[in-house]
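Please, structure for the following, as tokens.
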Amino acid sequence: MTDEVFIEYLEDQEQDSKVVVWREKYQLPEAFILILGSLDVRKNFERQLIAYNQLTEENKCALVIVGKTPLLTKKAMAVLNGKENFQRLGVRFVANVPREEMPLMLAASKVLLNATLAEGFGLPTYEALAVGTTVVTGPLESIAGIKSEGCF
């Protein structure tokens, strides 16, 4: 095992075609906001859902939550006011995304909503920015040094 971090950069055209194939594999819409779901308190899952739910209809696109578990689904349904609202909002769960597919998943999303309360290194933030995805995050020390147009 190594402590080194590698972020793979693909040529734009190559990345675009791989993203299309990835999106089709998981049957996801062209535009979506991504949350890496976890019920760990520090991941701030509930507040991220509340923030998503407060978007205006004209600014709202589908929400994809990676990390499908019964408890995660139950919590999300409670916060987003039930199954009917879930379907209307276009909320989708994707489970078991292999680590090697993370760059494609991040590139496929319009926004990574990663407003965690604590983060070790903040790798998903760096990976999303590396593939050109906008990131909405909190004021964490681990990512405070990021100076990028795509990080809010």
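Strands lie at 32-36, 62-66, 91-94, 111-114, 134-137. The chain is about 35% helix and 15% strand.
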